[in-house]
Amino acid sequence: MVLIALSILLFFGPAPDTYAEKPSHVADDRGGRDVLTGTVESINPDKIVVKTDIGRAEPITIKNPALLQDIHQGDRISIELDDRHVATKITRVAPPELPNPPAETGY
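The structure corresponding to this sequence follows.
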């Protein structure tokens, strides 16, 4: 019985998304779109390079140049991506807040 089950699994393979992994720097939001957050390293009319929070430079294709309006090098942004890794929405976001310094102990 186990041999039959293994044979079926080998013939049909695992479930379609078993081996599909997203890069660790890309999150999937509730709408099913991928979202990438980071700092703009460079901007061209058809491409933007974003340094992600894990330090990886990620080139993103831009099909709609209007998305880059008011976006500048050094801005912290969040980009929604379609299934072809093309930007569909770009939003400027505030930099992450730094933790409060430790309290003085009075020694």
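Helices lie at 2-12.
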